[in-house]
Design brief:
Elements: E1 11-17, H1 23-31, E2 36-40, H2 44-51, H3 58-64, H4 69-77, E3 85-91, H5 102-105, E4 108-113, H6 116-123, H7 131-134, H8 136-148, E5 155-157, H9 158-163, H10 165-176, E6 190-193, E7 196-199, H11 208-216, H12 235-249, E8 277-280, E9 283-286, H13 297-301, E10 304-312, E11 315-316, H14 319-332, H15 341-355, E12 361-368, E13 387-394, E14 405-409, H16 430-441, E15 446-450, E16 456-459, E17 463-468, E18 471-474, H17 484-495, E19 499-502, H18 507-511, E20 515-520, E21 524-531, E22 534-535, H19 543-558, E23 561-562
Parallel strand pairs: 1-3, 1-4, 2-3, 4-5, 14-15, 14-21, 18-19
Antiparallel strand pairs: 6-7, 8-9, 8-13, 10-11, 10-12, 11-23, 12-13, 15-16, 17-18, 17-20, 20-21, 21-22
Helix pairs in contact: 8-12
Bound molecules: pyridoxal-5'-phosphate.
Length: about 575
């Protein structure tokens, strides 16, 4: 007689989720497949035994299910079976340290998440919610453990599943390398028997109040248009859980299901800036978590002051000059509870050191009036003190300084001291942004802005210089920002033995100039080869521009406040 063939073990698909996350519906969905058997929370009794937690059905459950978790892992989860696949619905808190490492090493895993904002309103119907009961922290541990094993699991969101079951399920099947079957979209004949699904006419296993509505369902229910009113007793718990949920949410494949954003993720000008640390308030945060309150003055009214600084060869160029201007702007705007110069310097250094940025980097330093106690315009609502943002990025000079740029003149006028004094370096940049839009529409790199009388003030982002018959000219700083690069370049012009005139300059003088350049920390010294369709000089970079560019390079290589190195920190 031929020996009996040994039963093959199915490929196990582990589904990890928090409670109230459509995990039972999803199990029903997988149970419809012709190649799948399913297990409902096979590690539940182990969890009850190991943790000792109380449940109304504790005794009944322990008497029906094997409470020895490792026995269950070996014989039930990975035991022999008739089908090609075995789906295991796991609740994350049942992932306990006493379990064999096989549980995570073997089979295919995926994670089902749901916004705690949608879990918590219905949670208290069974067990009062807590961080442990929700198990969202444990879901992150599971994700991290699987990444450590070299297999980051697919993540799906219950709210997406409700929105578009077919897109999410077919995407999930693809990620699990199993063919999608359309019968997963509907069900009508399964209930539980000893942890396994069975036809409806057999005995029901498990606490029925959990599954009542799912048993009656025949597919994923459509999401409600409006959320339930949130149970505010769980507000703190929501705050504890959300960072974990959001971390997992970021792992959802963007190309899948209704989560697909209207636009794909844009490429970053410098891809290395994807993973940077940003100083917000009094801490360093990863790029995606670096956020400011909706109550902050900068959100409410552009009520903040800022500086752009550049890092050259381990040094911050003109650090004290930038901080002087920042404090002057804050003083003019009557900010209160402004941090000290040393505190801001420390935040700058910590940010640069943490990011390993010692060269070729730029800092956007913003100081907001801070959070308000309620929305509104009055600085009287600002009772929390100022908020500092140190956004350091890898950033080579932003213009083509070797070939030059084109400018056009904007119709938008630069603010005069009659309206907003341009000597305040504030974040209310709409004036400049409107001019920049004009520049973009004309396919120019930037736009020249005129003052209220029609004289040139600066560009939307830089100060401006011209050369005529060997004399260097730049507008008075009455209608433009008194730029730090402008001041540096004015000194250099004199040091390089050119004559410098600071006066009102009309647009036609710029059109007819021999050379023009712009200045700014971000872009340094940028030759201008065309203004409003007029070629400047012969359309090439002129000799004075080159001389000043070279002199500026020497200065930036040598000057600056050193960033403390690890040994000194
Ligand atoms: C409108 C405007 N002009 C000029 C500049 C250049 O100033 P700085 O040389 O201090 O970087 C800036 C930079 O912040 C600016 O926003």
């Amino acid at each position: 007689m031929a020996p009996e063939a040994e039963a093959e073990s199915p490929v196990v698909i582990h589904a990890w989720s928090a409670p109230r996350s459509l995990s039972t519906s999803l199990m029903y969905s997988f149970a419809q497949r012709d190649d799948m058997e399913v297990l409902d929370e096979p590690l539940y009794a182990n969890f009850l035994r190991a943790t000792g937690v109380d449940r109304p059905y504790r005794q009944e459950l322990l008497s029906k299910m094997d409470p020895d978790g490792n026995q269950v892992v070996k014989e039930v989860i990975f035991g022999p079976g008739d089908k090609k696949y075995r789906y295991c619905k796991h609740i994350s808190k049942q992932h306990l340290p006493n379990l064999s490492s096989d549980l995570m090493k073997k089979g295919k895993h995926f994670i089902l998440i749901r916004n705690p904002l949608n879990i918590l309103p219905s949670f208290d119907k069974v067990v009062p919610p807590s961080f442990m009961e929700l198990g969202i922290g444990e879901l992150v541990s599971i994700y991290s453990e699987l990444c450590g094993l070299g297999s980051p699991p697919p993540v799906i969101d219950a709210d997406d599943l409700q929105q578009d079951p077919e897109a999410v399920l077919s995407g999930l099947c693809e990620d699990l390398s199993i063919p999608f079957q359309s019968q997963m979209l509907n069900w009508n004949c399964f209930l539980f028997l000893d942890g396994k699904l069975a036809p409806r006419n057999l005995m029901v296993y498990g606490p029925p109040w959990w599954y009542g509505s799912v048993h009656k369902s025949s597919g994923f229910s459509k999401p409600c248009q409006y959320p339930l009113t949130f149970p505010f007793a769980f507000y703190d718990l929501l705050e504890q859980c959300l960072p974990f949920y959001n971390m997992l949410k970021r792992q959802i494949r963007k190309t899948r299901g209704p989560q697909q954003p209207p636009l794909p993720d844009p490429p970053l000008p410098v891809p290395a800036n994807k993973n940077i640390l940003v100083w917000v308030g009094d801490e360093l945060l990863p790029r995606d978590s670096a956020k400011i309150s909706v109550f902050d003055s900068v959100v409410q009214g552009g009520d903040a002051v800022w500086e752009g600084l550049r890092i050259y060869d381990g040094k911050v160029f003109k650090l004290d000059e930038h901080l002087d201007r920042l404090f002057d702007s804050a003083k003019a705007m009557a900010f209160r509870n402004v941090p000290t110069r040393d505190w801001i310097k420390d935040a700058i250094f910590k940010t640069l050191i943490a990011n390993g940025m010692f060269d070729n980097a730029h800092i956007r330093l913003s100081l907001t009036r801070g959070k308000k106690v309620t929305s509104g315009m009055s600085p009287g609502f600002n009772l929390y003190g100022c908020a500092l943002i140190v956004l350091a990025e890898w950033k080579p000079p932003v213009y083509d300084n070797s070939h030059g740029i084109k400018l056009v003149t904007a119709t938008t006028r630069r603010n005069s001291p009659n309206s907003i004094d341009s000597k305040i370096h504030h974040n209310n940049l709409i004036n400049n942004i409107l001019a920049k839009i004009e520049g973009n529409l004309a396919q120019a790199e930037d736009a020249i802005m005129l003052d209220k009388d029609g004289f040139v003030s600066e560009t939307n982002a830089t100060n401006i210089f011209m050369v005529k018959r060997g004399i260097v000219l730049t507008p008075h700083a009455d209608y433009c920002l008194p730029g730090i690069t402008r001041a540096t370049v004015m000194d250099l012009v004199v040091k390089e033995n050119f004559v410098l005139h600071e006066r009102r300059i009309s647009l036609s003088e710029f059109h007819a100039a021999d050379e023009v350049w712009t200045t700014g920390t971000m872009g340094e010294i940028t030759p201008v080869v065309m203004i409003d369709g007029r070629e400047i000089g012969d359309g090439e970079i002129g000799p004075v521009t080159r001389q000043i560019q070279n002199a500026y390079k020497v200065l930036t290589a040598g000057l600056g406040v050193p960033i403390p190195r690890i040994a000194e920190v």
